[in-house]
Each structure stands twice: as C-alpha cells, then as structure tokens.
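S1.2 Input.
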Amino acid sequence: QVQLVESGGGLVQAGGSLRLSCAASGSEFRIDRMAWYGQTPGKQREFFASITGGGITDYADSVKGRFTISRDNAKNTAYLQMNSLKPEDTAVYYCYADITTHDGNERLYWGQGTQVTVSS
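S1.3 Output.
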C-alpha cells in the first residue's frame, strides 16, 4: 500500500514562509501527477498547485507568484514552498498523488493533511 505523509506545517506570521513536504512510501509504484490542496472547516477542498512527472506546474490564481511546487523523484517527494503567506492561506494542506502501482493500476492517494496557520 502506498502512503503519503505531509510535514512542514505550522504557525507563521503574515509575510512569512513555510515549506511543506509530501513523501510517498511503499513498493513498486510510479508517481505521476502530484498536487497540493487546502481545506478549511465548512469549505470545499480547493486546488492550489500541481506538478506532472515531467515537471510541468500549474497554480491557482490565489497562490500564483507566492507558492512554488517541486518534486524530487529520487526521494518520491513533493514540496510546496510558500512565501508571502497571508491569513487567508490558513488551511489544512493535503498532498495528492496519481500513482501507478506495480500491477499497472492507477490510483489516487491523499495524505492526511498538515495544518498551516497564518496569523495577521
């Protein structure tokens, strides 16, 4: 079974920075697209950033120019560098990955989330 584990969340003042990590563990799999989403209680989970296996990135307008998604394929890890953080960025951040397992099956996986709180 593949697992995604997020880390790097915490409390930061507005204007500060955080870097989130998402590490995939397991055996005999290939990670295709990876992405970061955020969710606030009572709100729908929203897309923030994604990166393909070839390194092509996409960003939501709300984070464009402030957040950078990257990946280290050797470590099966994706990162989200968050700069110029705003209070409205406060959310539980979830890592997402499209994964092809050893038997050729494609599955989508979610991490359990890491809390990011930005104080004003």
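S1.4 Remarks. The chain has a mean pLDDT of 95.
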